[in-house]
């Protein structure tokens, strides 16, 4: 149902349950998106910070929880 | 080699001019040299050639002496262009004189050729490629047109027998086909070009420019600085108070702990958030129901209501334990504590304390385990991280949720006056005069004890001993033994601080005061079996409710000895609870797995809802609690499961608004409601003279 990966901020996956190529792809793309989302939130109000990011698509939901050093990404299939 | 040959010639020439003795030796030397130098070329004709050389001497040969001949001439190779001028002079208007140029260009161009290659991506290159593409298209079109024309000609040739309309249609068809063919051909090359472009314009993450760190990074830096300064200030203060050595030790310990933390612990915060999100997705429909669903069929149900099952909370370590206590946290409305133990006298094992949140039904937030079964718990109103717990073995303990240990922070022991029988209920009290935390506990050993937390230790004081009336026995040697009743539940009055009720195993309810330690204010002959629960009404100051294993639930006014309302629920009642939103609504749970919800203002004699809420048969429900904010109840059963149920609208009815009148909200309305009911009940009672 769900797959889990966690990354360093530089985009290197530390632990993953997916295959390597997909992981690397997700790593690079989501890292950038998180940074962009974070800078958006903080530019509006520097005291604010991004807690998590959720992207819902037709096929699954991608959830990103940024931390100080790490990025935790979970891809979940909808349970229907 | 030419130099040597030259030398040879000179020597040979000098031979005859220098002296007669010279020729034969130089001649031999020359011949030898010749042999060495031109070993392959000079063959048998060497002697003749050398001999001829020595005799011939050109007339303009320079005549030099031997010393002059031995003079060495050095030859230097430079990169200078020998044809370049060495001293170009230009007229300088400034100095009005001819001045030599310092540097003269030394390049000598041996060969130059103009090429005709252009870079593909440059402007000229692109223009040319466009032109060539256009010309290709034109050629394609022309070829297509030609083919079309030929087709048409063919058709025209064969169309003699066909009608004109058909011809036109065919022509049009042919034209369309040709156009389609044309259209197909240019796009494929264009598409190919685009694909190529994508391949080479691929932007790699490493080659992108970094997002410029804007003001929030500056803010972060400032915050860090502030924190460092504050820490240093604190350190200075503490250094002044405590010995420096201790501080250093602490500091070292802290740093070592930080460095030892594992990778997994670093990600704990993010993982927690993620766990909640995943749970929210999985239980999405339940969460939607909880928030928004209101059963519309209640209108047709004629005042009856239902309980909608929402989440089910279970933990595999508590599968064999029964839920013995539930309590909502006063501060966090979605957090609740559950105590696990066993009601069976024979099968006593360990106990657990779990705290769940409705946001995460899959796993408890806090887990504490204990050796003895937990029988009761209470969360402090002002300090929602302190949980007081009573055990089956008679001990009491306080758990601190803020600390990471799974052991209680403070625990009583046999020395410090623990109960000798299971502790059935604990309740926090207001802080005493010294601002110490204290709570009360009641137990089957007949004592009600007040525990105070004084300087990290639990100190006990017996408040009351429940002496059962008329049971003083004559012991040996003339002692008067007093058997004590067994307290099973108690509740403190919300407003009157010293007043509290105690229910016992014999079925009596004592009204007591904290001030009097030996006498009760009043006794109610309540039930025939043990009183499982007593509870004051949250609004009305005089009303309380009690339930018992004798299948009844009774509502009392504490000034009247007889109950106001009696309900027979056909099975032992495990727990009863008032609802926080209405003074006339309460819920009771029985051992046959049913939950009953009553609303006295709507129906005084029957339950509005009687529903089986546990899945399996033979599963007794042990406790029920209303959530203070949401229209939700949690029910604990014997198998260690907690089920969360939503109350349907009929069970939550508020007094109806009369037209033209404002709805009065607040406790006064609830009290008035209850008063009305009591008056209704009281008069027949008084007239009947019970």
From TrEMBL, chain A:
InterPro entries: DYNLRB1/2 (IPR016561), Roadblock/LAMTOR2_dom (IPR004942)
BP term (GO), one: microtubule-based movement
Annotated keywords: Cytoplasm, Cytoskeleton, Dynein, Microtubule, Motor protein, Transport
Subcellular compartments: Cytoplasm, Cytoskeleton
Keyword Cell division: no
Function recorded in the entry: Acts as one of several non-catalytic accessory components of the cytoplasmic dynein 1 complex that are thought to be involved in linking dynein to cargos and to adapter proteins that regulate dynein function. Cytoplasmic dynein 1 acts as a motor for the intracellular retrograde motility of vesicles and organelles along microtubules.
Name under which the protein is recorded: Dynein light chain roadblock-type 2
Organism of provenance: Anser cygnoides (Swan goose)
């Amino acid at each position: 149902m769900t797959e889990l990966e966690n990354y360093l901020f530089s985009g290197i996956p530390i632990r993953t349950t997916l295959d390597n190529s997909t992981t690397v792809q997700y790593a690079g793309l989501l890292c950038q998106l998180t940074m962009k989302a974070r800078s958006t939130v903080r530019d509006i109000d520097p005291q604010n910070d991004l807690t998590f990011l959720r992207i819902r698509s037709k096929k699954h939901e991608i959830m990103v929880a940024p931390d100080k050093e790490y990025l935790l990404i979970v891809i979940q299939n909808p349970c229907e | 080699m030419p130099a040597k040959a030259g030398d040879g010639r000179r020597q040979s020439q000098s031979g005859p001019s220098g002296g007669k003795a010279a020729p034969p030796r130089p001649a031999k030397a020359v011949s030898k040299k010749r042999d060495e130098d031109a070993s392959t070329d000079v063959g048998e004709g060497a002697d003749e050639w050398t001999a001829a050389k020595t005799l011939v001497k050109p007339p303009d040969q320079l005549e030099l002496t031997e010393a002059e001949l031995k003079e060495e001439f050095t030859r230097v190779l430079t990169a200078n262009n020998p044809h370049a001028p060495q001293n170009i002079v230009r007229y300088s208007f400034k100095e009005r004189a001819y001045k030599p140029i310092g540097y003269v260009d030394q390049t000598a161009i041996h060969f130059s050729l103009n090429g005709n290659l252009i870079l593909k991506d440059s402007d000229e290159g692109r223009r040319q490629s466009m032109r060539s593409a256009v010309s290709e298209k034109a050629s394609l079109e022309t070829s297509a047109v030609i083919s079309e024309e030929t087709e048409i000609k063919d058709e025209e040739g064969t169309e003699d027998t066909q009608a004109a309309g058909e011809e036109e249609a065919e022509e049009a068809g042919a034209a369309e086909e040709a156009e389609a063919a044309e259209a197909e051909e240019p796009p494929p090359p264009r598409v190919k070009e685009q694909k190529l472009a994508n391949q080479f314009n691929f932007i790699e993450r490493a080659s992108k420019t970094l997002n410029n760190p804007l003001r929030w990074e500056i803010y972060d830096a400032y915050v860090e600085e502030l924190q460092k300064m504050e820490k240093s200030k604190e350190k200075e203060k503490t250094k002044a108070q405590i010995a420096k050595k201790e501080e250093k030790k602490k500091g070292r310990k802290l740093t070592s702990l930080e460095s030892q933390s594992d990778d997994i612990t670093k990600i704990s915060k993010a993982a927690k958030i993620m766990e909640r999100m995943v749970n929210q997705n999985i239980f999405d429909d339940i969460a939607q129901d909880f928030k928004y669903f209101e059963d519309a069929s209640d209108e047709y149900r004629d005042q009856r209501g239902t309980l909608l099952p929402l989440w089910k909370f279970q933990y595999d370590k508590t599968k064999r334990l029964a839920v013995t206590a539930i309590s909502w946290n006063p501060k966090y409305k979605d957090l609740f504590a559950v105590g696990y133990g066993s009601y069976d006298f024979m099968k006593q094992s360990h106990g657990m304390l779990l705290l769940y949140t409705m946001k995460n039904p899959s796993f408890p937030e806090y887990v504490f385990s204990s050796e003895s079964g937990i029988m009761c718990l209470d969360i402090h109103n002002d300090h929602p991280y302190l949980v007081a717990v009573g055990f089956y073995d008679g001990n009491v303990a306080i758990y601190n949720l803020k600390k990471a240990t799974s052991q209680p922070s403070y625990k009583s022991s046999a020395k410090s006056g623990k109960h000798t029988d299971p502790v059935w209920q604990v309740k926090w009290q207001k802080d005493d005069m010294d601002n110490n935390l204290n709570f009360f506990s009641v137990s089957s050993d007949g004592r009600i004890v007040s525990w105070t937390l004084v300087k990290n230790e639990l100190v006990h004081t017996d408040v009351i001993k429940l002496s059962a009336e008329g049971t003083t026995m004559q012991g040996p040697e003339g002692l008067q033994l007093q058997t004590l009743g067994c307290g099973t539940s108690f509740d403190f009055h919300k407003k009157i601080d010293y007043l509290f009720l105690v229910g016992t195993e014999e079925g009596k309810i004592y009204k007591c005061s904290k001030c009097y330690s030996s006498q009760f204010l009043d006794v109610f002959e309540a039930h025939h079996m043990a009183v499982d629960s007593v509870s004051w009404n949250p609004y009305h100051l005089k009303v309380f409710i009690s339930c018992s294993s004798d299948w009844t639930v009774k509502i009392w006014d504490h000034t009247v000895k007889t109950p106001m309302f009696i309900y027979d629920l056909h099975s032992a009642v495990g727990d009863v609870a008032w609802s926080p939103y209405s003074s006339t609504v309460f819920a009771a749970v029985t051992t046959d797995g049913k939950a009953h919800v009553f609303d006295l203002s709507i129906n005084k004699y029957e339950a509005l809802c009687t529903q089986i809420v546990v899945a399996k048969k033979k599963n007794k429900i042990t406790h029920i609690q209303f959530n203070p904010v949401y229209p939700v109840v949690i029910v604990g059963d014997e198998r260690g499961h907690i089920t969360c149920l939503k109350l349907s609208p009929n069970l939550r009815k508020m007094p109806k608004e009369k037209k033209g009148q404002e709805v009065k909200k607040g406790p006064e309305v609830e009290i008035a409601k209850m008063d009305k009911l009591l008056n209704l009940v009281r008069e027949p009672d008084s007239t009947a003279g019970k």
